[in-house]
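Tokens as discussed.
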């Protein structure tokens, strides 16, 4: 038996100025989207990636967040318009919000994120708790570590409850490897240098990845994709931004050998 997973991330639909945006960090996100990112991100890559994924018909699609720029309802509407054919294709899909999807505490933005989350996850209601999916010889722990943070931060936090959930899943007797997926990379090489945008509270999860108790972490957030893998394909894969770099990743797990194979493709 094999399991084929397609991953894409950080599509960052262009910022739309929403009511009250001038009062909080949405103004910063709007400027960032319209000044810094305008020419560098090609949002039509999402449409081409959707067609490519539908052609591939994988067993699962994973989208670890940053669908939008400032969390405005109109941004989520655009993201949904592009991703709808995929979400309604019958291919199981896991979407976890990124820091840009939960950018501020604005109520309308929060409601739009929850509506998008539900549609992307086959009707699942958003909650901060982690959950486990079992699919074709794999166990996939889905973690939610993004929450609104201050103007200068784009960090996340893994709660002690989520860490305990991962520990229980890793210790449970099972022949199926455990994958963890969420927005933020868990393996961090330079905690001080990366303190503005890293995940906090994930030390134990990182140790579980390094020891192989968690076979693989699948994440986004860093726009230039990379992987830190051993010869079995165990470790961490940061997908990279689809609209900035055209990053699309294809992961195959083979149950007989318990090995993961990663193939990357660039969407022009
Ligand atoms: Fe991002
Ligand atoms: Fe992010």
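Sequence:
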């Amino acid at each position: 038996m094999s399991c084929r997973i397609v991953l894409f991330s950080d599509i960052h639909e262009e910022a739309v100025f929403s009511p009250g945006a001038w009062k909080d960090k949405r103004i910063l996100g709007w400027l960032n989207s319209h000044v810094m990112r305008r020419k560098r991100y090609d949002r039509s890559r999402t449409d081409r990636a959707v067609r490519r994924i539908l052609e591939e018909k994988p067993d699962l699609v994973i989208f670890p967040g940053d669908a939008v720029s400032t969390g405005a309802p109109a941004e989520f509407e655009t993201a949904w318009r592009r991703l709808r054919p995929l979400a309604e294709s019958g291919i199981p899909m896991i979407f976890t919000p990124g820091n840009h999807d939960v950018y501020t505490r604005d109520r309308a933005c929060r409601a739009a994120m929850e509506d998008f989350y539900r549609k992307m996850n086959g009707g699942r209601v958003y909650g901060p708790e982690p959950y486990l999916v079992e699919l074709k010889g794999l166990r996939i722990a889905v973690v939610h570590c993004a929450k609104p943070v201050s103007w200068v931060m784009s960090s996340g936090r893994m709660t002690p409850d989520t860490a305990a959930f991962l520990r229980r899943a890793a210790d449970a007797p099972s022949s199926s490897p455990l994958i963890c997926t969420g927005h933020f990379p868990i393996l961090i090489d330079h905690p001080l240098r990366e303190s503005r945008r890293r995940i906090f509270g994930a030390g134990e999860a990182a140790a579980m990845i390094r020891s192989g108790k968690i076979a693989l972490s699948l994440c986004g957030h860093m726009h230039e994709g990379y992987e830190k893998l051993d010869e079995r394909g165990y470790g961490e894969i940061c997908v990279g931004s689809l609209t900035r770099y055209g990053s699309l990743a294809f992961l195959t797990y083979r149950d007989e050998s318990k090995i993961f194979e990663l193939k990357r493709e660039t969407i022009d």
